[in-house]
Amino acid sequence: MLDQWLSPCSETKGETKERMKEPSPEKEDEMRPDKKQLMAVLYEETKNEDASKISEVKSALKEKETETRNEQQQDKVEASKQVDREISKKEDREITIHHEVFHMKQNTEDGSFFPTEDISSEQALGAQLEHLQTEDSTLETTRSVQEKLKIPSLEESVTPAVPSIRDTTHPVQEQIQIQRLLESVIPAVPSIRDTTHPVQEQMQIQNLEESMAPAKTTAEVTECWDEYVAPTADGGESGSMLLLSSLLSNTQTLLVSGQHDTQTSWHFPAGPGLAEEVQCPLWQFPALSYYPPIEPIVPFEVMWRVWENVDESATAAEPFPFTKASMDFTVMSYNILAEDLLKANQELYTHCPLEVLDWSYRCSLLLEEIKKWEPDILCLQEVQENHYHEQLYPVLSQMGYTCVYKRRTGTKTDGCATCYRSSCFFEVSVTSLEFFRPETEMLDRHNVGIVLLLRPVVIQGSEVKAKGSPLCVANTHLLFNPSRGDVKLAQLAIMLAEIDSVVKSCKAKGKHCNLILCGDFNSVPHTPLYKLITTGELYFQGLPAWMISGQEDQSYKAYCHRLFAPLWPSSLGITDSCQYTTVKEALKSQNQKSGKGQYSHEVMLQLRFCPAACVRPLDLEQIPGVTDNTPDASRGSQSYDNRFRRTISHQLELESVYKHILPGFGNPEVTTLHSEAAATVDYIFYSPRRVLPRDLNAGDLVSEGLKLIGSLSLLSEDVLWSMRGLPNHIFPSDHLSLLAKFQLDLNSA
């Protein structure tokens, strides 16, 4: 750095060499620019503690100023004018350099510089701002300082060897002498002004050469810096910004100054001896910062449950495409967790925050979920009676639903509710079922169900344009007790018998009836109760009662209740085929026609092995193969109840919407979760579409049933626990809602 400051002065200005042949601080003071005098005066005014020292130096120097006053005064005025003209061209850059020179001290031992601590950054900034106002004000300030300081030659008397300045040519010794003089008379303003003059003049000369000459070859310099600066918008040098500084050894220095207004690239030395020049385009350097740039945060919502469409390839096996008009509708089944049941089983929800257990909070989330999916048919379980009448029904009716509610018998306050959109369906019949039968010992539990027969319609204005096949919608909530599988089967049989009765009534009118059976069955998939619904048959003889639903594994118990035929007494009026007995229907018809008892063929077949039927009439003609058969006496001695088969079955073809395994993961689906268990117990069963021949002779085909279009995906247990279980801030119940979309055919009205 010392070579960079001193070399230009020794190479470019011969006049300076002649005047500096002998090291003397007095001669160096002559060559100080008047600009530094201004800085010293400002320093004098801001530093009150130095005023006393300056006055002492002035008094000591006044005795020796008379000999050289005229000569030094004239030289300094001329130097001041020349410096002022150069300062006006590079005012911004000069001030920074002057400030640095003014605050640097040279160590007399090794020639290094270090900053002084006399002037604060605020005071230096103030001095710079005052100097930058105008060129005229700078000149006037300089003259005023010169008039004020009328002792310019007093410094020469401190070191009387004036002629020796011109004899000295070594720049390092010159700087050492300057530093010694600065240390000896640092408070004196004239001494400061004159002592800093040679260094300032060297910097001025170097700046002028840099602005005028694009390149300069120096043999004596061992190190040089390549400075590449980008011009400002106005092309001025004062606004130039340093882009790149690279240290090169014994190379040619290439300077791209701010005067090139059309600079579009950088120039680098290259080739043998670095004599060639390489041109590179300008690069845009990013702003360096310790902290990474702040990126805008885009809010996102986690879609916990997504809609899944059914693969169309599964329905591609249809013999021909049906072009009949169709109607799409959605069905939702939802156990919403009654508040009374929550309070009665608080140990199941210790993992939940208290705010998510509050009914008002859960009710708002429940209604938001219903409004989001807008199902056409809504089947709810565990609906508390007061909540239904006060909160749910008013909102649902405003949404266009017609609702049917059935409360549980006994002291229970909750029940089931089935709602449908009156714009899509109109009601044909409704049946409320009570599973509590006091005449039957095993049916002592207060569970209920609703069987609703609807007719799909397409209404335009006030006119019905099309109608669909009747739709039977059944909604129930079976017993929870895992140990009483026999009770669950009996309750399910009552439900299936009522559905069968509705289907038969539609067939009697020549219409096919589509089925929807949904609810909370308190039974896990692929257990005996589940298989009875999906396959239509169950062999129950000897099965443990807990195994029917599969909720708990009670095989560790030494004794467990097992199932044997008959599963329920005949007084229930339901056969092992989950149908109402024809005897019951016959009695109904007998009551309708008083005075006459009529028995159907089915009833007579059931009585064919009674004791009276085993006695052959005397006048009966014997016909081979017809009347020659002898009834089996052993079978005739058995009662009707003992002939209950060891299997139960039904004639309804039902299929589950959900497959109970998450696709792609293999984890089981979960519809309910609490602190003790997580399982699938909620289902939507439906009658799938079948293609049947209408007329065997004509070969016509007809489609019956519902086509499944899609369903709302369920979640696994680990995902639900990552949400802190159920209920939570997203799902308001300990059950997840089930949602499916179906398609049915329409007929013209």
Short summary:
The chain is α+β, with helices and mostly antiparallel strands.
Sheet with the most strands, sense and barrel status: 14 strands, mixed
| Spatial gap, N to C terminus | 102 Å
Which stretches are poorly predicted, pLDDT < 50 over at least 5 residues? 1-33, 91-119, 145-172, 181-201, 210-261, 589-596, 635-642
Secondary-structure-derived class: alpha+beta
Number of helices: 23
Beta-strand share of residues: 15-25%
Overall mean pLDDT stands at: 73
Indicate the radius of gyration in whole angstroms.
Answer: 54 Å
Count of extended strands: 26
| Helix fraction bin | 25-40%
* Overall shape: elongated
Textual characterization of the structure:
With 749 residues, the chain is of the alpha+beta class. Helices cover 33% and strands 21% of the residues. It has 23 helices and 26 strands. A hairpin with a 6-residue loop joins strand 1 and strand 2. It is elongated.
Show the helix and strand layout.
Blueprint: H1 2-12, H2 14-19, H3 25-30, H4 34-46, H5 51-61, H6 69-89, H7 91-102, E1 104-106, E2 113-115, H8 121-131, H9 135-148, H10 154-158, H11 171-184, H12 189-195, H13 197-212, E3 223-230, E4 241-249, E5 265-270, E6 276-281, E7 307-309, E8 326-335, H14 339-344, H15 354-357, H16 359-373, E9 377-384, H17 385-398, E10 401-407, E11 414-421, E12 425-434, E13 448-460, E14 463-468, E15 471-477, H18 485-508, E16 514-520, H19 528-535, E17 537-539, H20 582-592, H21 601-606, H22 633-636, E18 647-649, E19 655-656, E20 672-673, E21 678-679, E22 682-686, E23 690-695, E24 700-704, E25 707-712, H23 717-722, E26 738-748
Parallel strand pairs: 8-9, 15-16
Antiparallel strand pairs: 1-2, 3-4, 5-6, 7-25, 8-26, 9-11, 10-11, 12-13, 13-14, 13-15, 14-26, 16-22, 17-18, 19-22, 20-21, 23-24, 25-26
Helix pairs in contact: 1-13, 4-9, 4-12, 6-9, 7-13
